[in-house]
Amino acid sequence: LEVDASWRLARKIPETLFGLFFEEINHAGAGGIWEELVSNRGFEAGGPHTPSNIDPWSIIGDESSIYVTTDPVSCFTRNIVALRIEVLCDKCPTGGVGVYNPGFWGMNIEEGKTYNLVMYIRSPESVELTASLTCSRPSGALQNLASAYIQDIDVSNWTRVELKLLAQETCRTSRLDLTTSKRGVIWFDQVSLMPSDTYKGHGFRKELMYMLLDLKPRFLRFPGGCFVEGNLLRNAFRWKETIGPWEERPGHYGDVWNYWTDDGLGYFEFLQLSEDLGAAPIWVFNAGISHNEGVDTNSIAPFVKDVLDSLEFAKGSAESNWGSVRAAMGHRKRFPLKYVAIGNEDCQKEFYQGNYLKFYNAIREAYPDIQMISNCDGSSEALDHPADLYDFHIYNSSTDLFLMKSKFDRTSRTGPKVFVSEYAVTEQKDAGNGSLLASLAEAAFLTGVEKNSDIVQMASYAPLFVNDNDPGWKWNPDAIVFNSWQQYGTPSYWMQTFFRESSGAVIHPITIASSYSDSLAASAITWRDTENSFLRVKIVNFGPHAVSLTISAHGLQVGVDTMRSRVTVLTSSNVMDENSFSNPNNVVPVSRELPNAGEEMQALLAPYSFTSFD
Ligand code: AHR
To answer: Quick check: CB of 375 below 6 Å from ligand 1?
Structure first.
């Protein structure tokens, strides 16, 4: 394998090459990175008509002691449903009666941590109320982890109550209990419980943030995917319903992935998440098209206006109409929103082309700096409409994705750039629940992305997250698997760590001559940290044989520092090996020193492996 490491033929890789695609799928946000522990906090998930299903809230007590229903009496006009409990007992059971919320398949409550409870209550009488965090132990006993009380306060009008709950013990499957022993009626609404130590206090689950930060993502595409479209437009993501005080957000049912979200993770929070990750935000907005409907281009004007408002919200001055709403949410500074995608996978849909142009022209005029992404694939045929980038999604078998490392070799170099915003091996027999095999094919594909990064400007794996408790997982495989308290990366996650220094680096030409060339994929980059520059050669061996190679690098700018040279390998004894909660490090990169590093060196690539030489 020969690398021309001179600057003569080196080419700069875009600063934005590798990033993340976040979709509200598999409870990635609600019950995932968004650390609201209460599920259905506003009692809205059962629909606007009352009485309604309060799932997953449940009743503590029986018919003789408590009557629970929903009532359209909230003080929040956009989410009018509240919970009404009527305590019927004079001598209530020990511990009282009330309701509990198990969160998203159990709350992770940790000893020594404080949890902030906010709720709105109303009652004609003064209330005596206990809020507790409890845990069902295997013995069947309900253990109290933390409690706080309110009594003798006037709540004759809707009143915001804030309590702090300090956990005395740890339990991964806890619940929030709201109980009373006093006869009477209490209404509850907007009950929120969050740990006090979310990432930067911004509501994001720290451990998941650290995993994302470790990939050094340069962009964040959000909030979907099909989530953006909805099966029906009325269930699509509507950014205006997701901003402002959390209590006032109506929430919505994501009808593609079939679950409710309170939209605590809303448009503002996505922009905040991008900022916290140091990633450029990429806002995918609905183009007036759902999976089953399309708004006629003649009627699309209000949708265009709505999108312009979203841009003013992100980019406008704090004095502008929508920019002032952002400022009121605590972010006076403008968000550097420079990319928008006009729809998701809508190219072939009726009205897309017409609607696209309406959005494109209006945005181009109002925000000439914004780069617009079309849903139409321009990789084999030129687009018939203007665009800065076009979206390319690829879900495939491992063999096909491996071969697609050359996909962009002959793509036109004129016209819009490519955004590979969703790629993964998904064929079940290859992918399992996230296999080494899948990650190797993806790595090979990404070496092709790097080599073609004159035309491919961005790439992101999909989907990013899955909550393991989500029945059946909505999509499999995913990059990061988590439950209420644990998380691990699939091999596809770890594969991406080999590319985290590539964005903004330079790529060098390489040639490979080997009898195993057909099963090899490789690239070479130079990246710099504050003091040094490193040549990194990455090689995928997609075959069952060990491969011996001589690696030589010509034209290095500085000598090889053997003390700092390293080899890192992602492999396993079985190509279908996966990671799991019990064995999270089964397939992870292993690094060691490379004492034989030099301008020319021998290397032995393990069968089915991904190796980088720094
Ligand atoms: O990544 C999962 C889904 O795949 C996305 O929602 C959609 O864009 C694609 O079809």
So the answer is: no
Among 222, 347, 391, 393, which residue has the most ligand 1 atoms within 8 Å of its CB, making it the best to mutate?
393
CATH code of the region 58-195: 2.60.120.260
Residues of the chain within CATH 2.60.120.260 domain(s) are 58-195
Neighbours of 240 (CB within 10 A): 15
- In eight-state DSSP terms, residue 297 is G
Q: How far apart are the first and last CA of the chain?
A: 15
Q: Which residues contact 88 (CB under 8 A, 6 or more apart)?
A: 64, 65, 66, 67, 183
- E-strand stretches of 137-251: 142-153, 159-166, 171-180, 184-195, 219-222
Strand 171-180 and strand 127-136: the pairing is antiparallel
The fold of the 2-12+506-613 domain, in CATH, is Immunoglobulin-like (2.60.40)
Q: Is the CB of 103 under 6 A from ligand 1?
A: no
Chain-centroid distance of CA 71 in Å reads: 34
Question: What number is the average pLDDT over the span 505-516?
Answer: 96
Model confidence at 138, in pLDDT bands (50, 70, 90)? confident
**Phi, psi (rounded to 5 degrees) for 392:** -135, 120
pLDDT in tens, 44-77: 999 999 999 999 999 999 999 999 999 999 999 9
Instruction: Give the Cα separation of 299 and 302 in Å (integer).
Output: 7
Quick one: which atom of ligand 1 is closest to the CA of 224? 6
ipTM computed for the complex? 0.99
Find out whether the beta carbon of 463 lies less than 6 Å from any atom of ligand 1: yes
Distance 306 CA to ligand 1 centre (A): 24
Provide the pLDDT for residue 531.
Answer: 78
| Alpha-carbon gap, residue 281 to 220, rounded angstroms | 5
From 3.40.605.10, 3.40.630.30, 3.20.20.80, 3.40.1000.10, which CATH number describes the 20-35+199-497 domain? 3.20.20.80
Range(s) within the chain of domains with CATH label 2.60.40.1180: 2-12+506-613
Mean pLDDT of 570-597: 96
